[in-house]
Amino acid sequence: xxxxxxxxCVCALLSVPLARSQPIRYSVAxxxxxxSLVGNLAQDAALPxxxxxxxxARLLAEDGRQHFRLDRASGRLVVADRLDREQLCAxxxxxxxxFELLLADPLQFFRVEVALHxxxxxxxxxxxxxxxxxxxxxxxxxxxxxxxxALDLDIGSNSVQAYSIFPKNQYFTVSYGSxxxxxxxxxxxxxxxxxxxxxxxxxxSLIAVDGGSPPKSGTTxxxxxxxxxxxxxxxxxxxxxxxxxxxxxxxxxxxxxxxxTDRDTGINGDMSYEFSQVVSQSDSAFEIDSITGEIxxxxxxxxxxxxxxxxxxxxxxxxxxxxxxxxxxxxxxxxxxxxELVVxxxxxxxxxxxxxxTVVALFTVRDRDAGANGKVSCALDDQLVFSLRPAYKxxxxxxxxxxLDREETAQYIVTVTAADAGSPPLTSSHTFTVAISDINDNxxxxxxxxxTMYVRENNVPSVLVGAVSAADADVGLNAKVTYSLSAGxxxxxxxxxxxxxxxxxxxxxxxxxxxYEQLRQSEVVVSASDAGSPPLxxxxxxxxxxxxxxxxxxxxxxxxxxxxxxxxxLVPVSAEAGYLVSKVVAVDADSGQNSWLSYHLLxxxxxxxxxxxxxSGEVRLRRPVTDRDxxxxxxxxxxxxNGRPPLSATAALSALLLxxxxxxxxxxxxxxxxxxxGSLTTYLILALVSVSLLFLASTAAFVAxxxxxxxxxxxxHGLDGADNLPSGLAEAAAAGTLPHPYCYExxxxxxxxxxxxxxxxxxxxxxxxxxxxxxxxxxxxxxxPCVPVPTxxxxxxxxxxxxxxxxxxxxxx
Length: 813
Known about the structure:
Layout: H1 2-15, E1 24-29, E2 37-40, H2 41-44, H3 49-54, E3 58-61, E4 68-71, E5 76-79, H4 85-89, E6 96-103, E7 108-117, E8 130-136, E9 144-147, E10 160-166, E11 172-180, E12 183-190, E13 201-210, E14 217-227, E15 235-236, E16 240-246, E17 254-257, E18 260-261, E19 272-278, E20 286-288, E21 294-297, E22 308-316, E23 322-332, E24 340-346, E25 350-351, E26 359-366, E27 376-380, E28 386-390, E29 395-400, E30 411-420, E31 427-437, E32 445-446, E33 450-456, E34 463-467, E35 470-471, E36 481-485, E37 499-501, E38 507-510, E39 521-530, E40 537-547, E41 555-558, E42 568-572, E43 580-583, E44 585-587, E45 597-604, E46 610-612, E47 618-621, E48 632-641, E49 648-658, H5 679-717, H6 727-735, E50 743-749, E51 754-760, H7 771-775, H8 804-808
Parallel strand pairs: 1-7, 8-14, 16-23, 25-31, 33-40, 42-49
Antiparallel strand pairs: 2-5, 3-6, 4-5, 6-7, 9-12, 10-13, 11-12, 13-14, 15-18, 17-21, 19-22, 20-21, 22-23, 24-26, 26-29, 27-30, 28-29, 30-31, 32-35, 34-38, 36-39, 37-38, 39-40, 41-44, 43-47, 45-48, 46-47, 48-49, 50-51
């Protein structure tokens, strides 16, 4: 089953068209300056430079270190930082830095490999500044004495190419060649037999030269001590020892044992072992027993850090002769590293309208172990929404497989588990928290299908009558609901512009005072809109009902409440109790109990004669008419509604009791005169006072003139004025008792717009009244307009005048 799964993964990886089959290769010399051009990556990848920025191109290295930088504007690949080949690749013959060029929208990969060329930036270095060799004087010419070669970190032609001796001498030459498994060694060759008695020591410099341009060199001092007698050097049982050790071996574990023999005996045959050179510079990880030659671990090894360790062991006998062998330690891998999951890109939050197949995350898995221990497989926990898809090599994509709905699930916890094929297998997991971002896919929903609100008429402007509320299942701006009155309104619905809705809270206000009698109800459509793009909306009908208040007093239709004189209702004196005299008709603009009217008799000339029906307003006789009843009656009917508080109006009626209708005539006056405003009467009184003052002034002047003429006549004729008077009047005048009564009759009609009064000239005993006075009134020509009518008698003085005090006491009808 596992093999079938691996075959499927390989097939899926080969079918992915996202990566280029062949990598793009470049080369660059080490130690290149930062910003040095490596190549035009956009051109070699056949990509327009503009796509690099548009598709968010970036470089992904397997080790996570960015050695190179991509200029998105030009597509040039340049060095990001100084590159040291020896630090990056050690002594490897080739040094290649690999990474991927990752493009998004759509996802695409390009494998890029940059070969790092070595330059001659290191000089050969000998392990020691001074080397001492002890050589028997009996050594034959042609004998070879191994030396520790110089170490040059460079490779190829830049490594050590030749050795030379300076100054040259007659005893030794240097030989540099391959003797052991293709590895070059350096040896001193004895050219002439030594003679300790002639020269006990030989000193010279050994120079190592590399093949760089210009070449670099290193020097060590060689000190030759000529020994006597010991003519056999140690010989190792093997020229090269190979040991294998598990990387999890503990400290102190024996790796292998080297052995050298010497045909000499005694002290010249005693062996001692030591490390002469540790090629891999891992001397701290090994130690050697100088007596037994056992090589042990000083610390656990790490296969992932170094797979092999190369050592050099020197065996020296008691006479100072030595031999060197190579020791190669191979580290065997164990499954001690769990897989690593490195996320390259992760998209969160994810829009809820993302289509199936949308890439959520891109990650790579790797295991530092080798072989089966480094083979990694990935799996998801139980998921119905996401799946894994191989992308390129060890890259995987986390993609959606079904539609998303934020309102149902706002966040997904996705766990990816990576397991290697070791025994036992090691696993690691990474959790992706995928937040689902909201899109505006839900319209607001009102909590009621319709709203009914109430307001009393004569309300205060901008009064709050209720509120609408809508909720949106989305979040953020997509859930922010604003309210407004809909522009569309059905023509058949009663509507007014008096309503307003708060855009934030949904509170509904009545902007002006309403009149129930003009508008009893109104319907508006309130729209709730969210702040999404595009916005979604919902409508609801709000019905406003106006409640009636008792703000209209009853209106009397009959009798008509106009300014003209009221008509009189004619009632025969023979009428019985219950006789219908009249009917007061009134209406009320309010409704309900505020419009229920009741009628009551407020005032009447004879309250016991008339009765008013409380419900119908009919005025009827309470009892039969008698001879004692007045002919003319005035009634005031109160019309009152049933509101709280109640409002009322009055209606004035006039009734005439007649024996028969033949003596009906219209009087000069009218009862309505008493009800007219007092302004016209005031004007008439002022006019009468003015005319009276003029009349008195004229009378006084006339009397004075007459007296003056009388005195002149008496003086001229010597006659007494009294002689010419009638006897009765003369006596009265002489006694000063001439009566001055005046008789007035006045009739004022304000409805007719003029004023009339009758003035009868004074008469007394012995005086004959005028014919029109005896007849009962003056003719039209004998009417004196605007003369005041005194209500008490005022007696003039002897001169026939009235004093001011007496005049001020006058009151006029």
